Amino acid sequence: MNQPTPAIVAQSAVRRLPRLALLLLCAAYLMPGLLGRGPWKSADIAAFGYMAELARSTEGLARWFDPMLLGLRPETPALIPYWIGAWAIKIAPSWVHPDLAVRIAFALLLWGTFTATWYAVYYLARTTQAQPVAFAFGGEARPTDYARAIADGALLALIACLGLAQLGHETTPALAQLFFTSHLFYGVAALPYRRVGPLIALVIGSVGMTLGGGPTVGLALGIGCVVLLAAERRRGPETTPDDEPTYSTGAIASIFGATVLAGLLAAWLGLLQWKIELPGSQPGTSVFGELRSQAKLLLWFTWPAWPLALWTLWRWRRQLTARHVALPLWFALVPLAATWTTSFSERSLLLALPAFATLAAFALPTFRRSVAALIDWFTLLFFSGSAIIIWVIWVAMQTGVPSKTAANVAKLAPGFVPEFSAVAFVFALAATLAWAWLVRWRTGRHRAALWKTLVLPGGGAALCWMLLMTLWLPVLDYARSYVPQVRAISERVGQPVCISEIALSRPHIAALRHHGQFNLQPLTGSQTCPWLLASPEAIGRLHKIVNLEGWRFIGTLRRPTSASDDLLLYQRINP
């Protein structure tokens, strides 16, 4: 016998969220940050460097399967994210800057993530065990309307997650992995209802995770789904109503086949690399300290979805094996395990956000009015306060008032000269007015809508991102870009034939090539480049490679906002 569902929802509570409003919210979250900036440190510029190298490469197909940046392979053993960026650079018109072309392509990946997550939740909410209690005299929510309302809530929860803001707007393999994970999630969730679309999504998700730098995560997700769905099928009609679409043997075989295909491809290309780093395994670190930092990361990165997800697991605890709970729970646990056992903590946790948002959405039909009101008030205060802080700091940058705030900005970003942008001001003001209207609309109308609790979190996250990418974009770009450092180098060396380098990081190499158009060459004893750039950590090696008596130390060049990005500049002394 099926356990009773904790969801009690009337038809009046599943009224449709206007599609235009939802699309505008997604656009307001996606578009800010596309223009007016370059690639940021460190993973963003490094990934772009590999994409630019592939775009200009003339070494044939072999180089595309082994990306290099001055002889260095990527830290993430990925292929397809760099292919996407390189193709975007190649097909973009000449008037489109290469890094803008890449950002547009990856913004489309984030849009695809939103779409796949919405449809995955829609089909999960269509299952009988996810439906609300049937009323004695009718009036309960219709299945399709209920599923649409839950899917809207999941998309709002995904946009509201704090961890998505920066990583979701970078051009790194992590965003591509998020796209492929969400499509794998959609493919598994929709397979009982559709065939062609979910099968294509399964292949895209499985193969994409393999070529996107997350083969082990993709394999674990696929194998776990096969086990969960095979167990559901084995339970048979005792737990599944007669009219419930189920996973056929062929559907489960399709998931297994896509997983096997991805595993064989990963093995053939040598992409299965174990990089397990347990907490406390690094010298100078403690298990307790690592666990505490990971816990803090989890709490803020997945906020506000994680409290709602925990509430879902509690209220739906009698149906943990049901499809709409078990699948998103598995898609959350696997990235969580990768987060706690690898050094790519934030980027692994990013993959769990669609699953957290799904679990958060299924908490909506179980809330009491008092809980929903508490969430609304907390969200209103949090995002309104954040918006006020952003505006106050911007005013301080423009006018010097309050003086203490302006001094703090000058201290954090030395050398930055603020400029007023009318376009940025208009967009920021429009976003703020839209937030005020949304708050008034939320408190005055549609109080019974199921998705109402997540309207303010989603809108508040979009508001703050819009304000940051308009009012604060110049200072953020100055602080997170390598442009000031590269410009300082250009003023010293001009545009020489070549510059020798030793032990430069991938981000530095990519930045020097992209922003400075320098011809970098690894340092050898026989080179004749007139200038040398070295990392401070390479001083010991530098004495062994060349005779420093033939070089004159010019100075230390650093990023204005970071003392850890110093570069040492030497000039060759002519015989």
Oligomer: single chain
Secondary structure: helix percent: 55-70%
In order across it, which strands form the biggest sheet?
A: 2-1-3-5-4
Morphology: globular
Order of helices and strands: HHHHHHHHHHHHHHHHHHHHHHEHEEHEE
Cα-based radius of gyration, to the nearest Å: 26 Å
Strand content: 5-15%
Largest sheet: 5 strands, mixed
Low-confidence stretches: none
The overall average pLDDT, rounded, is 89
Written description of the protein model:
The protein is mainly alpha-helical and 575 residues long. Helix content is 59%, strand content 5%. The chain has helices at residues 19-30, 43-56, 61-64, 80-91, 98-125, 143-160, 164-167, 173-190, 196-211, 215-235, 249-269, 287-301, 305-315, 323-341, 345-349, 353-361, 369-399, 403-412, 422-444, 455-468, 473-480, 483-493, 506-516, 539-545, and strands at residues 499-502, 520-522, 531-534, 551-559, 562-572. A five-stranded mixed β-sheet has the order 2-1-3-5-4, with helices on one face. Helix 2 packs across helix 4 (80-91) and helix 6 (143-160) runs parallel beside helix 20. The protein is globular, with a radius of gyration of 26 Å. The termini are far apart.
